[in-house]
DNA sequence: AATGATAGTTTTCTCTAGAGAACAAATATG
DNA sequence: CATATTTGTTCTCTAGAGAAAACTATCATT
């Protein structure tokens, strides 16, 4: 492992462009990309046409590009290989089966959480969050769980930059109170969302530290409030805490 | 559209590395990549660690890398966007339903055919070919259909470089005879595989010309020989030829 | 229709990245 | 155990890439 090394700027820029396409969900022009990413038009031009030639991007309508099939093929291969997904997936399936909740695995990426895997609930309800989607960092259980793994200065920085939104009447948008909730998560090891993000929906989340760099990830479980009544919470929370410990041990 | 432009070498190298991982199916070290791709170790080193930091690759066992979850996420997004897949998918589904065959969509890539989409047969048999997999170019119906779209010199070049394999007793490994078959496909517009690649399995294939650069693709349909008896072939061939024309018209 | 603004493309030049060499560490062989 | 080979990492320098500027084409506004 290198002590330090110099990253390749063209590759970093290239994947920033691809990330923009992934989150944009619509075709983008050279000028749009240049503006969004604050890259020189000439730089974007060369990156985009290189990727176009490789099939990673493809020309949609005139002068607009979209993600291409070659990226899809690579992503398929990656899905089969990713250690994180392979390791965590069986646990998501087990807990989804046991709790009848919808299970998610996500990682922190650019101040939002990206869903990298998902196991639907056998219960029959379908939560409208798909793999690849980004969720706001400060939404529901996820926000608390990720911020609980950060230092106080990092938490302060994020809370000064992003407003706590009142998604439902139960949402907390008082910064001091929110910090108290984060402190509780630090102590308990789990975060609970009691209809703070979507009315009628509850969730519980736990943080994971995965891979060589102990990267922050989280798995969270979502269901109707009647599925996550206070009576069953202790049992479910025990399950996900135990599993989190098992997963974290795997990556040590 | 530029008259000509200079591609970004770092990006080209980067995706050659990722393609190698996708086809390799196992973790690779810096030296292995360097040898396979004939890249300098220092170059590979910097590419690999840059991709590692971005989550596109991740460290598996010590000093070996694998495809990472961030690539999987991008690939998922790409799958939702790819015009080729979006355009052709409904036809594959329709024909799979109508014919009870397993339907594939593939593109030519580095002298083999990569499966980019697949619709399983409602009939119940499962063909063991998954999205992302490569199939030898000169295998069954696919080979004939792709070579039928190439010039005679290109065909000669490929046939001099790669041997015609005797996969089954029905396989043709006589070059002159194979060329006659290719000529037939040129005339008929479809290729048929009568147990030439896998015994007991028949297939029919048609070529597509898609995207701005009229890239070569193909869709093919595979089933048990009893599903593709000579009696039903004319009807099925008519269906896939009509659909191919419809798809090709979409990309003009 | 004329003018201004925006987007895409090309050219040029300076700063930097890729390849080669050297070095350190790990592994294989005798 | 000693030596040779291979792999990974770091350093250096020259050829080349990224950004700026200029140019061309298209679109929007008056």
Q: How many strands in all of chain A?
A: 8
Biggest protein-protein contact in the assembly: A-B, 58 and 57 residues
CATH topology of the largest domain in chain A: Beta-Lactamase
* Helix share, percent of chain A: 40-55%
Largest sheet of chain A: 6 strands, antiparallel
Specify the oligomeric state: homodimer
Radius of gyration of chain A: 20 Å
Rough outline of chain A? globular
> Can you identify the CATH class of the largest domain in chain A?
Alpha Beta
- The helix count of chain A comes to 9
What count of domains describes the coordinates of chain A? 2
Low-confidence stretches of chain A: none
Q: Report strand order across the widest sheet of chain A.
A: 5-4-3-8-7-6
Q: Please, what is the CATH homologous superfamily of the largest domain in chain A?
A: GAF domain
Structural class of chain A: alpha+beta
What is the H-and-E element order of chain A? HHHEEHHEEEHHHEEEH
Query: Which percent range describes the beta-strand content of chain A?
Result: 15-25%
Give the CA-CA distance, first to last residue of chain A.
Answer: 16 Å
Q: Can you tell me the CATH architecture of the largest domain in chain A?
A: 2-Layer Sandwich
Q: How would you state the average pLDDT of chain A, rounded?
A: 84
């Amino acid at each position: 492992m290198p002590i330090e090394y110099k990253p390749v700027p063209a590759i970093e820029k290239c994947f920033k462009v691809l990330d923009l396409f992934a989150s944009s969900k619509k075709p983008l022009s050279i000028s749009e990309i240049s503006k969004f990413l604050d890259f020189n038009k000439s730089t974007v031009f060369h990156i985009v046409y290189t990727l176009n030639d490789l099939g990673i991007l493809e020309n949609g309508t005139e002068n607009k590009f979209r993600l291409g099939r070659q990226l899809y093929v690579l992503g398929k291969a990656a899905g089969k290989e990713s250690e994180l997904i392979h390791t965590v997936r069986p646990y998501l399936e087990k807990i989804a089966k046991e709790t009848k909740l919808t299970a998610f695995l996500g990682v922190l990426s650019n101040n939002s959480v990206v869903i990298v895997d998902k196991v639907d609930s056998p219960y029959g309800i379908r939560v409208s969050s798909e793999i690849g989607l980004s969720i706001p960092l400060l939404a529901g259980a996820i926000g608390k769980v990720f911020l609980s793994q950060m230092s106080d200065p990092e938490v302060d920085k994020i809370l000064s930059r992003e407003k706590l939104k009142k998604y439902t009447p139960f949402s907390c948008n008082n910064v001091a109170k929110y910090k108290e909730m984060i402190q509780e998560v630090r102590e308990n090891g789990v975060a609970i969302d009691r209809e703070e993000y979507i009315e009628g929906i509850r969730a519980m989340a736990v943080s994971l530290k995965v891979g060589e760099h102990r990267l922050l990830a989280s798995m969270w479980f979502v269901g109707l409030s009647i599925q996550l009544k206070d009576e069953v919470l202790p049992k479910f929370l025990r399950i996900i805490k135990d599993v989190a410990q098992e997963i974290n041990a795997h990556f040590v």
